[in-house]
Each structure stands twice: as C-alpha cells, then as structure tokens.
Design goal:
heterodimer; A: mainly alpha; 3 helices; 69% helix; flat; B: mainly alpha; 0% strand
C-alpha cells in the first residue's frame, strides 16, 4: 500500500492534545480521589499513548498486518500483567509462603 | 503492485520486488523490535505494580520527594521532540533536505535538554541521599521528606525499606529510559549525516521513518513514567 503522508496540521493538533492532557494529568493528581487517582492517571496516559501510536507513528494509516503486530504486542503485555497479578494477588488465599 | 515500479531504484535491496514492499517490510521489522521493547519495559512496569500494591503509602510519600516541576517540564520537552521528529519524517517524505536536517537537529537539542534536566534531578537525589545504594562513603537515607512543600507527607510513618524500593524502581526505570534516549541521540546524529549527503528522497527515507518510530516509542514510555513516578503523591501536598 502506498505511503500515506500525514499533514502537518494533524501533527500540530495531536501535539496540542498531548500538552493539554499532560497539564490535565498533573491537575487531577493534586486532588485526593482515593483509588480513582490511579485510574484517571492511567486512563490519560493510555489516551496519550494511543494518540502517539496512531498519528505520530502512523499506525492509523498503516497496513492491517502492522495493526496485527502492534495489537499482538500490547495483548501479550496484558497477558503478562494479568497472569502475574492473578498469582500474586491470590497467594494469601491458601497461606502459601508470600 | 510489482508492476508499478518498472525502473529499479538505487535504494532498493535486491531481495525486494519494489520500494513499497521494502518499506512495508521495514515497518513490520521495526514494530517487531518495538514489541520486544514493550515486553522489556513491561517487566519493569509489572515490578512497579507489584511493589506499589504492597507499599501504597511509601510509594506516595517517596514520590512526593521528586521534583514534579522538572518532571513536568521534561514531559513537555519530550512531547515537543516527538513533534519535531514527526516533522522531520514529514520533510523526508516531501524531499526537503535542509528541513530534514533542521528538524533532526531540533529533535536532538530537545533530547539533550531532557537528559540535562534529568541529570540535575539525579544530582538532587544524590545530594539528598535518596540513591538506593550502600557504599562506605555513601548510603541511602530516609528521614522523612521536609525539603519540598510536603509537610503532611513528611509526618506519615513509613517503612524505610519500602521507600528505598520506590527509589530503586525510580532509578531503574528512568535510567533505562535515559539510556534509550542516549541511543536515540546517536541514531539521530547518524541520520543528520545521511540527510546532509542527500541520502533521503520521497521514494527512500525509511531510516528517518523507522528511527521516528523508535523515538516516539521512547516518548510513550515517559508518558507512563511521569504519572506513575512523579504524581503518585501529588495529592499529599
């Protein structure tokens, strides 16, 4: 598939969105939201990372095969985190040495 | 697609049918590498999640002693460098040789700025004895943190070992990230030399494009490091 040239306006728009989200993540972190602090911080970080991957890294305009590679990477990361936590978070249930 | 390029291009390797196939293969190869990088940093983030789940108070208090202003400025510096890198790729696609060099140099300047600011932060931590090492002449010490505005944080009782673990993760994660930045600067310097020699054309600029993917990836790592390391204790002020 022919290379897609992303226009400069798209880059500037994404840049401004990233700056705004960075300011937002600091502002929200100053409030005491209990457990929601971590949820909000990670949500904003995931949105920022997604913008970078889709636009700065051109994945939005890339081939389906590229999507598979990128998706598989983050899917395997999710497996690593989920399985490790399902071990650590349940060790106390059976009194196995922590 | 093979019949769209009847003339062979100087930048076309012999094992590819045409420039499109070559570019596509390069992109996939780079992403395969970046996926291994995702797993590499993923291990560190996993360690962070596990230790933070065991020591939420210590992580918040220790995080509070980091210089959030410097971390914030560095986040902006990296976002700017991602923009200049994206523009360098844009000018390589449109064949503006001088602009490629200019924006690669701007990206390098911002990358260097990041590392210099990081250096000042590391020095601050060194002076405060927050580097988690034990030598005859220097050792980790935690006596609460009263130097910043976190008066409330300074009075919370904590387990010093868990505080030290936060700093161990802080130095491991930011250190490995900084190493990636240094490698990135070397790659960018090489690109500048290649661009000056006119090696990149609208038909062939994969080195710029693929190095851009690497640079943006390193930016993404920092996008997660900033809230997880600097902002965990921000609400304690």
């Amino acid at each position: 598939m022919r290379e897609h040239i992303v226009s400069r306006n798209v880059y500037f728009t994404i840049f401004i969105a990233l700056v705004v989200l960075t300011v937002a993540t600091w502002s929200v972190a100053k409030m005491d939201l209990g457990r929601m602090n971590a949820v909000v911080a990670l949500t904003i970080a995931v949105i920022k990372a997604t913008l970078v991957v889709l636009y700065f890294m051109h994945v939005r305009y890339s081939s389906k095969l590229t999507w598979v590679f990128v998706g598989a990477g983050f899917f395997w990361l999710a497996i690593m985190v989920a399985l490790t936590l399902s071990d650590y978070m349940t060790r106390g249930w059976l009194n196995i040495a922590q | 697609m093979a019949d769209t390029h009847t003339t062979t291009h100087a930048g076309l390797a012999h094992h590819f049918d045409d420039m499109e196939q070559q570019r596509e293969a390069g992109t996939l190869g780079m992403w395969a590498f970046l996926v291994t990088e995702v797993m590499f940093f993923g291990g560190l983030f996993l360690a962070y999640i596990l230790y933070r789940s065991r020591a939420p108070v210590e992580f918040a208090v220790a995080s509070n002693s980091l210089n959030v202003t410097m971390g914030f400025i560095n986040t902006l510096v990296l976002i700017c460098s991602s923009l200049t890198m994206a523009l360098a790729v844009y000018f390589s696609q449109t064949g503006k040789r001088n602009r490629i060099v200019l924006f690669l140099l701007l990206t390098m300047g911002l990358g260097l700025t990041f590392l210099v600011i990081k250096g000042f932060e590391y020095h601050e931590k060194y002076v405060e004895h927050h580097v988690p090492v034990r030598f005859a002449t220097y050792e980790f010490k935690w006596e609460g943190h009263a130097s910043a505005s976190g008066h409330e944080a300074a009075s919370i009782p904590v387990d010093n070992g868990k505080v030290e673990m936060f700093f161990w993760l802080y130095f491991a994660m930011t250190g490995v990230h900084a190493l990636h930045m240094i490698i990135g600067l070397g790659i960018l310097a090489t690109l500048v030399l290649m661009a000056r020699r006119g090696r990149f054309t609208p038909d062939y600029h994969s080195p710029v494009e693929l190095s851009g993917l690497y640079w943006h990836f390193v930016d993404i790592v920092w996008i997660f490091l900033f809230p997880l390391l600097y902002l965990v204790g921000a609400h304690l002020h």
